[in-house]
Design brief:
It contains 30 helices and 28 strands. The protein is α/β, with parallel strands linked by helices.
Length: about 850
Amino acid sequence: MRRRVTSDRAARGPRPGVAEPKVEPKPSTLRTRLLLKPQELRRRIDPETLPGPRAAARHRTHIIGQDRAIQALDLGLRLESPGYNVFLSGPSGSGRMTTARHILGKFKEPRRALHDFVYAHNFVEPDRARLIVLDPGEGVRLARAVAKLVESIRRDLPRVLGMEACLKERDRLLAEFRTRENEVRTTFDNRLRRAGFALVETEASPSVERDCQPVVGGEPRSPALLEQLTAQGKLPARRLKQILRRRHELNIEREQLERRVRLLRRETTKVLENFNRRVGAAIIDNLIEEVREQFDHPEVRDYIGEVREALLERIPELVRQDGEYGTAEDGKAAPPVQADYLAPFSVNVVLSNARRKGCPIVFEHNPSVVRLVGTIERSPDDGRSGETEFMAIRAGALLRADGGFLVVNAEDLLTEPGSWQALKRTISTGLLDVRTPEGAMVAPPSALKPDPIPLNVKIIMLGDEEVYRALYLEEDDFKKVFKVKAEFDTEMELSRSNLEKFMAFVGRVVTQEELLPPTRAAVALLVEEAMRDVEHRAKLSTRFRVIADLLRESTFWARDGGRRRVQPADVQRALDERYRRLSLAEEKYRQEIERDVIVVETSGARVGQVNGLAVFDLGDYSFGKPCRISASVGMGREGLVNIEREAGLSGETYDKGVLIVAGFLRNRFGGEFPLAVEASVCFEQSYGAVDGDSASSTEVYAILSALAALPIAQGIAVTGSVSQQGDVQPIGGVNQKIEGFFDICTTRGLDGLHGVVIPRRNVPNLMLKRSVIEAVRRGQFHIWAISTIDEGMEILTGVAAGQRDAHGVFPPGTINRRVEDRLRHMAEEMKSFR
């Protein structure tokens, strides 16, 4: 038999289901008192109060409302210490790029002396390209001087070597060789003849074979033929043996002769090379001296010295050796110098600042590793030799910005593989290391290792707050190389000075883009839209790109209507057309509600069911999304069950809001007895992720309604977060939420019972559409501003919430008394079951 626990019914009231004393609290004026008036729903700007053209003309700056960011940016740009690069943080459209261009445009002089950077072949270490740093203009001058040197050698060396005096000296040296060779060969030929032998030459590809053969019967005979004669009895065997032995001895002498001739030829070739070197050295030294006199620079002098030595060593290759001994057989001048041998004697001007005026400022919109750092251009069929590969070194944005500033977008940088690592390494070391790119789609990497380039450049990186936070927390080196954060605000105070700057901005856009001038009433509407964009009546949005676009579109509609000035109607037309372009998703959602595919009731009353309001953000457009939130309660020990969380569809902020709801119930009703309740809350027909705590007050209303068995008016939607003490806190997107529910009610027909309950602290954020304000003025739609859950429940149910008296007891018949009685009854029933 179940044991029942009794209680003091007089103090606690009857259990649910048992007739309770009829209590009729005094009619509440709360609904009327908390109702917002039409003038509270939007701040109007009187066109006559706007600053005039003279006041606006005082403000010529392109940067409005970003004083804090500008001060930080100025510090980062002017402080010359390691790591003081700038991260320009802020949302897209807040004017980060415009500000960067404007501030950097004030730097008329470079941050440090500019240089030319050139690469040349390293004759000592061929696998390392030699870097030479010169004053502006000297790089091109050096390249031209070396090119002239090479051209002079190409022209003058063959000409001088082909002069009559040189040819005579070469002929004399060759004649001496031929005389000595002939003497040696004649002596050997005489010995062969006296021994009865002759020298026979036989073609044997790819060479000629020589053999000493005996003369028998007036003709040279091979050993095989002699053996046949012996076999036939025509030549005695003893004689054959003597002949073959003598043949062997003579062939040994012949080989010795050929070695002597080869040595003699090499000696002659060396004598000729020395002659060419003496002649070439005189020419090269004269040309080298001309180049050396043009440059009073240690690195250039060292390089020119290496060029001289390399040219002297290559003189034999610089003259094509078509003749047997290095000259044409007919005594004519030697052929032209071969280009391949002169290719390494070039200079690659990687960066020239000869024509640079002012401070280098580079905006890199495609910060890949190649475009950022530079590269060594390679292709499978470029035909470049290792000695000329240095000519393929190309500069990147970092080198072009040396002595100045480089501006990159953080998101673009981080999406390019390897770019962030390359930038970080360059900033940290102060050295730019140019390498060939790596990857499956590029040519094989080069073995060339150019000397690193000393770099001095300030980096300005643009990105939003999420990117900054991720880099700061996950990249240890980030905080070392980006020590200055210049954070752009999305809003500014609606002061007289800022209004003047706003007017100046409008005038500047109109003038620069030749738009139609707006009337003061049209500008007033633009100001109101700037307040709506930032969702605050006392602030203006700093997303001036949005304002400029609205001004451009308003001009389009004014011209389309044949007007000479932009009127408020043109601005409103631009807003309506923008809404029409972007609101397809909202329209589809509203149609689903109208067809009852998505169930949102806007009439009648239901227990445990409330119309909540969410915001669906598409990036370029956001809209209010009415949704049904329901609650069911029963005895149990699970407490509050979050169905979204159990299904894995809730975010962290939403889960926190549900826990706060549980804390509110414990705080208000769990002081004297345990809460033996199990309540579940759910976003009905929600199949995607849910986040945010703006529906926490809505969940409280649904739970209190279910516990008190009091129906909630379905013509009223609510929004707001709740604290554990029952205070209703402000939320975001209040305008979109109100307008989203208003549109649904308007489609179904306004009957004077529809409205929205919002937090009192959101009243300064109200900048509602004119259609909503007009419906409120006619009494067809209502907006209440509340501070506590009790006020919201009284508006939704029409029943007083009730406050504890001096004895800590809620008045009979009130919402809180009903809830407490139900919870106490559930605790008693649970205890009896135990």
